[in-house]
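Milestone M4 deliverable, item 7.
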Amino acid sequence: MKKSVFIGACPRMFLSGVHLWFPILFFNYLFSASPGIDVGNKSVDFSLKVLSSTETFKLSNYDGKNPVLVNFFATWCSYCIEEIPELNKIHNEYSRKGLIVVSINVQERESKVVDFVKRKKILYKILLDANSEVSKKFKVYGIPTNILINSKGVIVFRGNNLPDESEIEKVLPKPKRKKIERR
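Output delivered:
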């Protein structure tokens, strides 16, 4: 009787130590640097509907123009709720300096999100990722997830916390100095 290839290979795999490498390789596959989603790489592009609007937000529209802070959230997430006052503050302080702040709601009904935004007095744009397509593109495994993208479209920060002010200041356009004419 002929043995299956897999069963015949198992003892050799265990003897050679391959079984010890599998968890490491699998972990590395899941969390390794990926173009478009990790710090130092150009961000993947996306388009999403803006809440309570006919407008669509397209990330690439800001390439070469504005830095963008992208926040992934859900209405049931307590950590996401704790971030709202800080996100409102960042929006108020840095939007006139060129920073675009958007939050992407993951897999919730629009009506639920509209009520949430009103109750929490959110000031920045809310985008709807109803099918999790964008969160999958960015490999968002937990929320909140915050991604700061500079005006060249490169990710400069990614984390479950918000970037600190110094990180935000680094991506803002430098104020243009007025030339003084000498007579």
